Every structure is written in structure tokens, then in C-alpha cells.
Amino acid sequence: TMMRTETFRSYQEFNDEVEQDQNLENTEAEDVNDGILPDVDDGTGSKNPSMGFSRTCLKNVFSVILILIYLLLMAVAVFLAYQTITDFQDKLKHPVMSVTYKEVDSFEAPGIALYPGKAQLLSCKHYFHDHMPPLVKPGQPGEVDCVKDHINYTDPFTNNTMKHALVVQGPTDVRKKELIFLQFSQNETEQDFSAISYLLFYSFKEFKGSQNKAQFMKDCEKSYSVWTFSGGFRTWVKMSLVQTSEKDGSKSVEFRQESSVVKYYDKRLESEKTNQLFFVVFEWRDPFIQQVRDIITANPWNTIAILCGVFLALFKAADFAKLSVKWMIKIRKRQLKRKARELNQVG
């Protein structure tokens, strides 16, 4: 019986030692897997802890460098998000002007308001295909074959000066190059400079249908520019139309013009040259209406997509940094535990 009891105790002590050895090996294996190498025997029987420490230190340095890199990337991502939002707001405040051209077969007849003063209308006629026959008896009353109207109104800027306007219906058929030719005569001894002013407005039809034509002409003079043509020359005016879309959805119309001036060779008798002659031609330049509107180039969907990518990168970088910090803390704790275990073994 004593022999059996001693044998059982020896077998139990042997099992306890084997289990302790296996636990130690498993712990060291975990340390190796976590980046902490066990002390290495240098061949003389003594262990060298410098190799394991150097590898652990190197990995910690790499982790710190990676964290710094990701912090830099996070700063770049934040700057990119700020720049994207700033650009979007700037594009909202400063829309881009868009210009398109609409081709038409004919224009609505514009109104041509002339301010002849004391000059007399001698002739007025429409022609086509840029063909204008030679003058017959210049300075003498000729054919007046155009739609016209006379209107008197007070000056909208002074309110105490009466103005007289001759309003003529302009050309419409741009495909056939329709033009209107007008001839005026004025005694040149009555003033120092010989010129006739005129303005162009969008619709002669609106003028004819207006209940208050005087107020209509006041509004036109406030809205449109006034030009002049001189006596002793033939002024050829080529008109073009510009439509501008305002922010409130309304549209404004503006005339642009190109004019060429040709000197008139006066072949009248000297006795007839006391009157200065004025010649003016109005014609459409081309069959295009220039349409101008402001467009906003800022695309909210592009901005949202960029911001989503930026925030995703920020979350990924923050998650990586958090895992790196946890990994370093875990390594530090295991180092402390291992040192404590070594000190216990030595004791």
C-alpha cells in the first residue's frame, strides 16, 4: 500500500510539471505571434534579451510613423472637405454667364423712334436683298411707303421739355434681307451741328396697341440707348437682338448695332445745297437672337459624393489609429506581465 501511494504522488507531480511547461510554451508562442520574441540563447548558456527588445521597439516606431501618416491624411481630408464646401458656396454666389444663339426666320417688327427736330422726312421705303436703287431727285419729297406715327411727350429726365418723335415700323424679314431707307432734309444754317437722334425698341406692335403712347415712349427712353446719325452721310445700321434672362425669371431685351458711314456726294445745284440731307438705313445683321442667362455650375450631387468620400476616409483613418493605439497598449501590457513573470521565476 505504501508503494502504491508513493507511485501515485510521483505521477501527479510529473503531470503538474508537464502542464506548467505547456502553459509556458503557449505563453511564449503568443508573445512571438504578437511581435514579442522570447529571449534568445547566445550559445553560452545565457539568454540575450536585446534582440527581442529591438524588434519590439522597431515595430512600435513603425506604428507611430503610420499613425502620423494617417493623421496627415486626415488633415488633408478635412482641408479637402472645407475647400469643397467653400467652392460650392462661391459657385452659388457667382453664377456663370451662358450665351446661346436662337435662329429665326423673321423678327418681330421693331420700333424705330427718330427725333428729327426741325428736319423733314422726305422719303421712307422698304427694300429687299440689300438692293437700293439710285436716288431720284435727292432733297425733294419722295415716296413715303412705311408705317409711321407721330407722338409728343415730355422728356422723362427733365419733365419740362417737350419732345417730338417719329416712330417707324422696322424691317422683319431677315431671310430676304429686308431694309428700310429714310431720307431727311434740314436747313443747315439753323444750328451748329447737324445730327438726328434715334432709339430702337423691341415691338412696334406693342407701341401701336398701347393706351398711353406717351408713357410708353418715356419708358423706352429710360430703357434703351439713344444713337445719332449725321447729315451729309448715309448711315447703314445693322441691328442685332439680345435677350437677357433675369434672376426673377423675367426677360429684358437689348439692341446692339453695327453702323457704317458713307459720304454723300451732293450733286445738287448750289442754290439747293442750303438744306442738309440725312440718309439712314436699318437692317437686321443676321437671323440669330443672342440669349444670355446666368447658370449655376455648382452641382450638389458632386459635392455630396466628394464629402462622403472624405468622411469615409476620415472614419477609416480614425479606426486604424484607434486599433494601432490599442495594439501598442496591448504589447506594453504583455511586456510588463512577462517581466513580472521573469522576476517571479528568478525569485
From TrEMBL:
Topology relative to the membrane: Multi-pass membrane protein
Keywords from the UniProt entry: Cell membrane, Chloride, Chloride channel, Ion channel, Ion transport, Membrane, Transmembrane, Transmembrane helix, Transport
GO molecular function term, any single one: chloride channel activity
Cellular localisation: Cell membrane
Transmembrane segments: 61-82
Catalyzed reaction equations: chloride(in) = chloride(out)
Gene Ontology CC terms: chloride channel complex; plasma membrane
Residue ranges, annotated region (Disordered): 25-44
InterPro entries, sorted: TMEM206
Pfam families associated with the record: TMEM206
Family label: Belongs to the proton-activated chloride channel family.
Protein's UniProt name: Proton-activated chloride channel
Organism: Lepisosteus oculatus
